[in-house]
Each structure stands twice: as C-alpha cells, then as structure tokens.
Amino acid sequence: MYTVIGFPRTRAMRVMWMLEELGEGYDLVPAMPQSDEVRTLNPLGKVPVLKDGAHVLTDSVAICQYLADKHGALTYPAGTPERARQDAVTQFTVDEVEGALWTAAKNSFIHPEDLRVPEIKRVCAAEFATAMQRLEVMIGAGPFVMGETFTVPDILLGHAAGWARAAKFDVPETGPLADYLARVTARPAFKAALLHGKDADA
C-alpha cells in the first residue's frame, strides 16, 4: 500500500491519478506544502511525497515515472527510442506548459508580495498559448500524445490543463487539442482520483 502526502488540489493529484490508472491502493494524507508534516519527509517542503514502504520519494514527475516503471505500465521501456520521445514530451510539459503556469502562480500568491512581478503574467499567458499550439502539432492524429498508448505525459498534460483553467489561462475549448484534453480527463481513473480528493476535502 502506498501513501500519498499532499493536498489533492496540488500536484499530488497527478500521483493519485497514476495510482488509480495502475489499480494500486493508496492512503492519502492531505497535508499542505511547507507544513511540518511535509518538511519531515521533504526538506524542501514541497508536495507530493510518496511513501513506498521504507522509501520516501519526491517530485510529482519523478514519482509518476517511478510508478510507471515499477509496474511496467503507462510508459515505454527505458533505453528505447520510444522512451526517449516520451521523455522529451514530459520535459516539454514541465518546461513549456507547466513552466508558464508555475511562474504565473509564483507572481500571484507564492512569492512575498514585494517580490512579485504581476506584469510577467502577460508573458506567461503568451508562452502558454504558444505551448498549446505546439502541443496540438505533437499530438497529431492521437489519440494520445504518444499515439495509441496512454503514458505518463498524458497525465501531466491533463492535470496541467485543469491548473490552467483554474488560473484563467486560455485553454482551447474546441478543436483537436480540446478533444484530446477531454479524452484524457474522461478516463475513469481521473474521475476516481478527483472523487478521492473530494472525500479528503470533506
């Protein structure tokens, strides 16, 4: 049994979604970033944290890829050209999609007020829009970003789309990219993770 530490409205949702896709049971500890509970496990104070027996793992992308590799699902094998392409999409997601969202968040409520640069959010919105254009080209005929196989970056992208909507970024509502995002977030595992998260909020 795994334990996920992190409030469901954070990147912890990615790990929950991954575990639901894998059909693996987990306990959820809805701890907030920088809480004492989190800092005892991750000195950076960031969530999510995954406990796998005696092992404590951090960073949502690393955790999701670890789980995929461990269970031999939702990923191409390491050392294959397909895995290199998958990792490239993962890195694109972190750098160009999430990077814009994270920079905007830091300058909205994370940084101390005297360090925030609100004007940069216009740049972030433009960068995000460019990333969406590039993502549509990458998906092509789909149905997933790696073609016929649902993989780790699909989880990251599906989660990032929800984050973007909450942050009032322009997420396509029609067209191939909108269809892709609707397809990945219609998966039963995603809905199960959301329900688990709502139960934790209650």
Tell the overall outline. Answer: globular
Question: In terms of per-residue confidence, which ranges show pLDDT below 50 for 5 or more consecutive residues?
Answer: none
End-to-end Cα distance, whole Å, is 23 Å
Q: What average pLDDT do the residues reach? A: 96
Count of domain modules: 2
Query: How would a textbook summarize the main sheet?
Result: 4 strands, mixed
Do you know the CATH topology of the largest domain? Glutathione S-transferase Yfyf (Class Pi), Chain A, domain 2
Strand content: 5-15%
Write the layout of secondary structure elements.
Elements lengths: L1 E4 L6 H11 L3 E4 L6 H4 L9 E4 L2 E4 L1 H12 L9 H30 L9 H20 L12 H15 L9 H10 L2 H14 L1
Parallel strand pairs: 1-2
Antiparallel strand pairs: 1-3, 3-4
Helix pairs in contact: 1-3, 1-6, 1-8, 4-5, 4-6, 6-7
